[in-house]
Amino acid sequence: MLVHNPNITEKVYRKLTLMVAPEGLSFCVSDTLNQRVLSFRDIVFDQANAPVEQSYGAALRNHHELNEKYDEILILHNSNLSGFVPTALFDEHFLGSYLQYDTKVFETDFFTYDELPAYHMNNVYIPFGDINNFLVDHFSEFTARHAHTVLVSKLLEASKNVDEKKMFVHFRPSHFEVVVVQNQNLLLFNSFEYRTPEDFIYYILFTAEQLNLNPEHFKLELLGDIAKDDAFYTIAYTYIRNVALFDTGYMQLFNAFTATENRKHFILFHS
Length: 271
What we know:
This is DUF3822 domain-containing protein. By secondary structure, the chain is of the alpha/beta class. The protein has helices at 52-62, 129-139, 147-158, 197-210, 231-239, 259-264, 266-269; strands spanning 14-21, 24-31, 36-44, 72-77, 82-86, 112-116, 121-125, 143-146, 166-171, 175-182, 185-193, 219-224, 242-245. Helices cover 25% and strands 31% of the residues. Strands 3-2-1-4-8 form a five-stranded mixed β-sheet.
């Protein structure tokens, strides 16, 4: 983790957040004085397997926002190589052991974690080492976190004083995250790869069964890259009575973007 703290005379009251992955990146610029997201952009690489220096180098050259001055730069690692561990069971000397049953890990992997002290847990993850090293060369200093840390912490925050169990599904092009919360308690977090709507609903109904959630009663909210006319929304509505897109009304008070854009960039805009 790298961070730079400018003095008051150097401040420009701007923050840059980049969410990075091998297949592309997204970024937003925020006004930290007024707590507003000013702009954002998605960049999908033409060649997902191209060297980091080639793909990220081109992105940095072609977008002036990535070369301006900021008080804070935050890098979010966007992968499914992470897991939440209760503080009572956490030992920072054995980070790899927390992921070895969910994903293939190697002795050469570098592990790190984000603390969520308000919720008495930590998010252990494997960062993208090659991307991280390239960005260190470009930015010199930044803070790094995992995208799931932002997602889960914000959904837990939204569940305050809500005693019913609620399921959230955050969509991305190749996989989705399932988050089940109840009054700021994380009951379940998991990430699933999918291709078809049938894949999606199978995992949702299986998860509901494991937690004794009745499809006639529990509430399911969808966010991320999802719209009401998607086949994924339709199949969810077929099998689950209470389905809705995540309400972004409060987010739109702090930016000029549509509900669809706010849902898609929920993690980025809340970082």
